[in-house]
Design a protein that fits this description.
By secondary structure, the chain is α+β, with helices and mostly antiparallel strands. Among the domains are: 96 residues, no CATH class; 166 residues, 2-Layer Sandwich (Heat Shock Protein 90). The protein contains 13 helices and 11 strands. α1 runs antiparallel to α6. The protein is flat.
C-alpha cells in the first residue's frame, strides 16, 4: 500500500512535468519548423531575384549592343539574328541544363511556342498587365510531380524594343515576325524561374526528426532524474512523516517528529516544524482548555466587532461610490449642455451668415463676434476635458523655468477682468514687491490661478468682490497666492469633496448661470501637487471663501539659470 502511494505521488509530479515539457517541446519544434520553412522560402526568393537580375542584365547587354552586333566592319548594317529574346532564351536554357533551376522567357503572345506561358505564368502576366507597380510574382506549386518555387519578374518594353515589337502592329520586323504594336512601358513578357524545393524539404524533414529524437532523449532523461529526486526528496520523507502522524493520531500527542530522522528538507521540513508547533499548541490546549476557550471567545468577539466595523466602512464606501456615480452622471448631463450650447449658437449664427443676404457689415461683424465668443467657450471646455484626461492618465509633464508671478497675475487679470465685468463682480489683484522669481511651469501655473479666480467669480453674486493677493513667506521659502471672494461659501462637509473630479459644492446651483464642469478646482489641485505645492481652502458659509495656493520658492535655481 505504501509503495503504491509513493508511486502514485511520483506520477502526480512526473506526468504533469513531462507533459508540460513535451507540449513546450512540440510547440518549439513546430515553431522551429515554420521558421526553417520560412527561411527556405526567403533563400529561394533571394536566389530567384538574383537570377532574374542576371537575366535582365543579359537582355540589357544584348539590347545595348544591337547596333554593334549588326554592323559589319565596313559600317554596313547586316542583321545577325542575335536579338535580346534569343540571347536571353539561350542563356536560360544553358543555365537550366547545368543547375536545378529552370529559367525561361514567357509571353502571352510568344513568337516561339516554347515561350508560351503555363497556368501560373499566365496569372503572373495578367497581374503585371493590370498593376504596373507590381515588380515580381512568386508562389509555391506542383511542377512535374514535385513542389517548386515559382518566381516571375516582368519585362517592360523600352524605346529600343519598339523597332521589333512596336507599331504598326502586323508589320514584319527584321527577325521575320510581325510586330505586336506595343508601346514603351507595356508588358512584353516575363522572366520565369522555377526552383525545386526537394532539397530544402529533405533538409527540413531531417532537422525535424533530429529535434524530435533530441526531445525524446531529454524527456527520458528528465523522467529518470525527476523520479529519483521525487523519491529521495519527497516520497520517502513523506512516508516516514505519515507514519509519525499516524502515531500521533492514535493518541500519543506528547511525541514530536524529528525532521532529520525522517530525512525532511525544504518545504517538508517546514511542514514538520509546523506540525510540531501544532502539537505543542494542542498540548497547551489540553492543559488549560477552559482558558483557551475564553481566549478564543474573546478573539471571536473581536473579529465580530471588526466585521461590523468593516461592514460599516463598506456601506460608507458604497455610499461614496453612489455619490461619485451621481457626480459623474451630473457631469455628463452638464457637459452635454455646456458643449451643446456654444455649438448650437455657432451653427445658428453661421446659418444666418450663409442664408441671410440682407445682413449689413455691422450685423455680420456682430454675428462673427458671437461665433468667436462661442468658439472660445467651446475651446475652453475641450481644453479642460483634455487636461483632466492627461492628469488622470499621468501624462502631464511640467517644463520648469524661472517665472515672475507678476507676469502670471497680469495674464490672469487680462483673461478674468472681462468675465468679472460681465458678472458685475468687483475684481482686483495685489502682488507684494518682495516676491522673488520662482521655478515653475509658466503655462500650468497660469492655469492654476486662472481656475481659482474663475471659480471665485462664478460663485460670487452681483456687486460682490474677488481679490487676488500674491505674497512671499521668507521664513518658509514659499509663495502664497490667495483668492478671496464674497460668494455663497462652502459647507464644511463639502470642502474636501470640491477638489474631486466631476464634483461641485451644493451651492453651485444657486446662481442662474452655468455652474461649470466640476473640473477647474480638481485640475488646479493636481497641477499644484505636480509643482510640489498644495491648495488650501477656508470658508464662511454665506459670506465667502478663501483659496490659497502654496508653492515652494527655490531662489538658488533661478539664480543659476540667470
Amino acid at each position: 500500500m505504501e509503495k503504491r502511494r509513493k508511486k502514485h505521488l511520483r506520477n502526480l509530479v512526473i506526468v504533469p512535468t513531462l507533459a508540460t515539457v513535451a507540449i513546450l517541446s512540440m510547440g518549439s519544434g513546430l515553431m522551429s519548423y515554420q521558421i526553417q520553412e520560412s527561411d527556405a522560402k526567403e533563400r529561394l526568393l533571394e536566389q530567384s531575384r538574383t537570377l532574374s537580375l542576371q537575366m535582365e542584365a543579359v537582355w540589357d547587354f544584348i539590347d545595348a549592343n544591337q547596333d554593334l552586333i549588326n554592323t559589319d566592319a565596313d559600317g554596313s548594317y547586316n542583321f545577325k539574328g542575335l536579338q535580346c529574346s534569343l540571347a536571353g532564351t539561350s542563356v536560360g536554357k544553358l543555365f537550366s541544363a547545368r543547375a536545378d533551376h529552370t529559367i525561361r522567357y514567357v509571353s502571352t503572345q510568344p513568337r516561339n511556342e516554347a515561350d508560351a506561358a503555363d497556368e501560373i505564368e499566365s496569372v503572373a502576366l495578367a497581374g503585371f498587365a493590370s498593376d504596373t507597380n507590381l515588380t515580381e510574382y512568386y508562389t509555391i506549386s506542383e511542377t512535374e510531380g514535385q513542389r517548386s518555387f515559382r518566381y516571375l519578374a516582368p519585362i517592360l518594353a523600352e524605346e529600343s524594343c519598339l523597332d521589333c515589337h512596336g507599331e504598326p502592329a502586323g508589320e514584319i520586323d527584321v527577325t521575320g515576325f510581325p510586330k505586336e504594336g506595343v508601346q514603351a512601358g507595356d508588358i512584353l513578357g516575363a522572366i520565369s524561374i522555377t526552383s525545386p524545393m526537394a532539397k530544402f524539404e529533405s533538409a527540413l524533414t531531417q532537422n525535424t526528426i533530429r529535434e524530435a529524437l533530441t526531445v525524446f532523449v531529454v524527456l527520458a532523461a528528465s523522467a529518470c532524474i525527476i523520479s529519483f529526486i521525487v523519491s529521495r526528496r519527497i516520497t520517502t520523507p513523506l512516508g516516514r512523516f505519515e507514519a509519525a502522524v499516524h502515531e500521533v493520531g492514535e493518541g500519543n500527542i506528547h511525541s514530536t517528529i524529528n525532521a532529520e530522522e525522517i530525512g525532511a528538507t525544504g518545504e517538508i521540513q517546514g511542514l514538520v516544524t509546523y506540525f510540531n508547533e501544532m502539537l505543542k499548541r494542542l498540548q497547551d490546549l489540553y492543559e488549560n482548555l477552559e482558558n483557551e476557550v475564553a481566549i478564543r471567545t474573546d478573539q471571536l468577539s473581536q473579529i465580530n466587532s471588526e466585521l461590523v466595523d468593516s461592514r460599516n466602512q463598506l456601506e460608507q464606501a458604497n455610499e461614496l461610490l453612489k455619490q461619485e456615480s451621481k457626480y459623474k452622471s451630473d457631469f455628463v448631463s452638464s457637459m452635454s449642455h455646456e458643449l451643446r450650447t456654444p455649438l448650437t449658437s455657432i451653427i445658428a449664427f453661421t446659418e444666418i451668415l450663409l442664408t441671410d443676404i440682407n445682413c449689413n457689415d455691422e450685423q455680420r461683424a456682430a454675428i462673427a463676434q458671437e461665433i468667436m465668443g462661442n468658439s472660445e467657450v467651446l475651446l475652453h471646455l475641450i481644453n479642460d476635458i483634455l487636461d483632466t484626461a492627461k492628469l488622470d492618465a499621468g501624462k502631464v509633464v511640467l517644463e520648469f523655468s524661472c517665472v515672475d508671478i507678476v507676469d502670471i497675475i497680469g495674464m490672469v487679470d487680462s483673461a478674468m477682468a472681462p468675465l468679472a465685468k460681465r458678472s458685475k463682480v468687483a475684481y482686483s489683484s495685489i502682488v507684494d514687491a518682495d516676491i522673488p522669481l520662482l521655478t515653475a511651469d509658466e503655462e500650468y501655473l497660469r492655469i492654476i490661478i486662472k481656475n481659482l479666480v474663475e471659480n471665485a467669480i462664478k460663485f460670487t453674486p452681483e456687486n460682490g468682490t474677488v481679490i487676488v493677493h500674491a505674497s512671499f513667506d521668507e521664513s518658509k521659502s514659499q509663495m502664497e497666492v490667495t483668492v478671496s471672494d464674497t460668494g455663497s461659501g462652502i459647507p464644511e462637509q463639502e470642502r474636501l469633496l470640491i477638489f474631486d473630479m466631476f464634483t461641485q459644492g451644493s451651492n453651485s446651483s444657486s446662481r442662474n448661470i452655468s455652474s461649470g464642469k466640476g473640473l477647474g478646482l480638481a485640475i488646479a489641485r493636481e497641477l499644484a501637487v505636480l509643482h510640489n505645492g498644495y491648495i488650501d481652502v477656508t470658508s464662511n458659509e454665506g459670506k465667502g471663501s478663501v483659496f490659497t495656493l502654496v508653492l515652494p520658492v527655490s531662489q538658488e535655481k533661478c539664480s543659476e539659470e540667470l
